[in-house]
């Protein structure tokens, strides 16, 4: 089994890169674990309080559960991956049964910040896009898919996203084995990652 960690700022294109890797892999070979599924359970807070949480700080992630789940998958056991609701700002009651496969891809903005998770990765990748590109993509995506409005995205960007990116996310570039420049769609980089996966698995 190969466990790959993919970090990088919001809107850099991590999910898009992962989907491309999957679409170019034999069916059933790759499992995705999203860091978003592992936001801490905030059921003890009301909705208003949840909207004020800093979701770009490493403390917002349940790394203990994520680490435990990766260890289970490594042992060949299936896990119940939590399902997150961006609309509710909380985990739902649902889970998705996730089976171990040859390749496990773990993606998320903060995934390379935690030393114990980093140790579990066979390959560490950082997806880079310039901050103006990322903000534009984030605005479009959050309004179209995550139920946000312009004011909300911009205020989150100024108050938490930008400072947290500078403090916690950008520095994790130094841990990466591969940095993918993704200001434009980078098919060559995806091909290279696919080749590395094939080599490691053969
Ligand atoms: N290279 C790219 N050029 C233009 N748009 C992109 C590129 N990569 C991703 N996008 C778009 O930007 C948005 C955010 O991409 P996504 O993969 O969700 O980023 P992340 O998972 O890093 O937050 C999506 O709407 C996606 O279609
Ligand atoms: N309730 C939440 C939880 C997280 N976010 C934002 O999601 C971003 C991470 O997801 P990506 O797919 O963009 O990597 C992160 O920057 C959080 O600010 C949110 O808006 N609401």
TrEMBL record:
<dbReference type="InterPro" id="IPR006083">
    <property type="entry name" value="PRK/URK"/>
</dbReference>
<dbReference type="InterPro" id="IPR027417">
    <property type="entry name" value="P-loop_NTPase"/>
</dbReference>
<keyword id="KW-0963">Cytoplasm</keyword>
<keyword id="KW-0418">Kinase</keyword>
<comment type="pathway">
    <text>Pyrimidine metabolism; CTP biosynthesis via salvage pathway; CTP from cytidine: step 1/3.</text>
</comment>
<dbReference type="Pfam" id="PF00485">
    <property type="entry name" value="PRK"/>
</dbReference>
<keyword id="KW-0808">Transferase</keyword>
<feature type="domain" description="Phosphoribulokinase/uridine kinase">
    <location>
        <begin position="3"/>
        <end position="188"/>
    </location>
</feature>
<dbReference type="GO" id="GO:0004849">
    <property type="term" value="F:uridine kinase activity"/>
</dbReference>
<comment type="pathway">
    <text>Pyrimidine metabolism; UMP biosynthesis via salvage pathway; UMP from uridine: step 1/1.</text>
</comment>
<protein>
    <recommendedName>
        <fullName>Uridine kinase</fullName>
        <ecNumber>2.7.1.48</ecNumber>
    </recommendedName>
</protein>
<dbReference type="InterPro" id="IPR000764">
    <property type="entry name" value="Uridine_kinase-like"/>
</dbReference>
<keyword id="KW-0547">Nucleotide-binding</keyword>
<comment type="similarity">
    <text>Belongs to the uridine kinase family.</text>
</comment>
<dbReference type="InterPro" id="IPR017975">
    <property type="entry name" value="Tubulin_CS"/>
</dbReference>
<keyword id="KW-0067">ATP-binding</keyword>
């Amino acid at each position: 089994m190969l466990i790959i960690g993919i970090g990088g700022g919001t809107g850099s294109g991590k999910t898009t890169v992962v989907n491309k890797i999957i679409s170019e892999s034999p069916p059933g070979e790759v499992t995705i674990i999203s860091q978003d599924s592992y936001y801490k359970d905030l059921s003890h807070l009301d909705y208003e309080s949840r909207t004020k949480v800093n979701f770009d700080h490493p403390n917002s992630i349940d790394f203990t559960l994520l680490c435990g789940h990766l260890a289970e998958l490594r042992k060949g056991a299936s896990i119940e991956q939590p399902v997150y609701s961006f609309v509710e700002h909380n985990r739902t009651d649902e889970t998705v049964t996730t089976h171990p496969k040859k390749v496990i891809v773990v993606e998320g903005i903060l995934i390379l910040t935690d030393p114990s998770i980093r140790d579990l990765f066979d390959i560490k990748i950082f997806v880079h896009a310039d901050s103006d590109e990322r903000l534009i993509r984030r605005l479009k995506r959050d309004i179209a898919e995550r139920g946000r409005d312009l004011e909300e995205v911009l205020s989150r960007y100024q108050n938490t996203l930008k400072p947290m990116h500078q403090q916690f996310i950008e520095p994790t570039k130094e841990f990466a084995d591969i940095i993918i420049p993704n200001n434009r769609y980078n098919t060559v980089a995806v091909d290279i990652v696919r080749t590395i996966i094939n080599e490691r698995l053969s």
